[in-house]
Amino acid sequence: MKKLNIGMIGYKFMGKAHSHAYRDLPLFFPKHIHPHMKVICGRSLESVADAASQFGWDEYTTDWREMLTRDDIDLIDINAPSDVHKEIAIEAAKAGKHVFCEKPLALTLADSREMLEAVEAAGVKHMVGFNYRFTPAVMLAKKLIDEGRLGDIYHFRAWFLQDWIIDPDFPLVWRLQKEIAGSGSHGDLGAHLIDMAHYLIGDITDVIGMSETFIKERPLPQEMTGLSATGSQSKEKGPVTVDDATLFLAKFANGAIGSFEATRFATGHRSTNSFEINGSKGSVIFDFERMNELQVYFVEDKEDVQGFRRVLATDAAHAYSDVWWPAGHTIGYEHTFIHSVVELMEAFQEERQPVPNFKDGVKCQQVLEAVEHSIEQKKWIKVTDL
Ligand code: SOE
């Protein structure tokens, strides 16, 4: 296989990020299978036509079912809001298409399990969009942990802080509606933190959480794109049905303990996605806004120079460092999506499943839901009971 024909659904924030990844991959990874940007699908004919010409897709359509009937489409890439992930992914798998789906995989754990069953029954490849795994700093953290250089892990402490909805007049966009988004900051931001914890530390066994919706009603939206929107002139309002902030504590199977905070009300924080890990031999600190750097601390350093130091993770550690720019020339947010697609293409070349895949999506959903149960029941919940 020299190229993989892509049919993509969604053309806004994630649609643009994925399109950019498909376009850039051949330029930097010439020996990999090349994604071919065949058809892009969206609800509005005019907007999807514009997106097709701007992003570089051959064709556009408003009918995703029609894409599934085509022999010249190999993979369906789902970037639409979360409420349609399940139906599209299951139908795509039944049609024999490989599936790449944005996070969170589904609205509920049960739905995500059905999606996993469908892709496994069809024998197709499946991937979920946990793109932050692919930052240079996270790749270095993973290497240090796997090589035992942080020793036994005691703490995972993570926070994902945004502030794009602190204005009470910001409209009721789909991300604030439970029936479309599943949950609020929890599924949107917390999902990334949970995946990171699974990736770096291991299984989460028990959780207890709390959440809050600070602004309970908002103006109905007129227009929305990505994280921006305009409100209704009539000032008609609707209820916010998701959490604005969710915090939880966790126990890991390996004995480590964790704390997680996801909020859209952290005034001044545009998108602070961070974690700190403390082990018996050292610690690391990740800050996405400085995704090329990892702060590291090693107990074995001589006393007089002990302290956190900033390591440029683009140079030696990360898997694709030789492909990008000369040492010290950093990369950005869009590269996390290019790396995700590189992993997808390598999975085809090596005849294996890509990672992270729907199994990781289900595991994340299980923790999301366990936290929701713990909030409802005001007690610790065993993740494996779900
Ligand atoms: C919006 O909160 C958002 O774009 C998320 O949906 C993404 O998954 C996250 O990476 C950045 O913030």
TrEMBL record:
Residue ranges occupied by any Gfo/Idh/MocA-like oxidoreductase N-terminal domain in the UniProt entry: 4-130
What the entry lists under InterPro entries is as follows: Gfo/Idh/MocA-like_OxRdtase_N, Gfo/Idh/MocA_oxidrdct_glycsds, GFO_IDH_MocA-like_dom, NAD(P)-bd_dom_sf
Alphabetical list of PANTHER family matching this protein: BCDNA.GH03377
Lineage of origin = Bacteria, Bacillati, Bacillota, Bacilli, Bacillales
Which Pfam families does this one have?
A: GFO_IDH_MocA (PF01408), GFO_IDH_MocA_C3 (PF22725)
Q: Which GO terms describe its molecular function?
A: nucleotide binding; oxidoreductase activity
UniProt organism field: Alkalihalobacillus alcalophilus ATCC 27647 = CGMCC 1.3604
Q: Would I find Oxidoreductase among this entry's keywords?
A: yes
Ordered alphabetically, the record's keywords are:
Oxidoreductase
Keyword Plastid in the entry? The reply is no
Residues in domain GFO/IDH/MocA-like oxidoreductase? 140-284
Official protein name in the record: Dehydrogenase
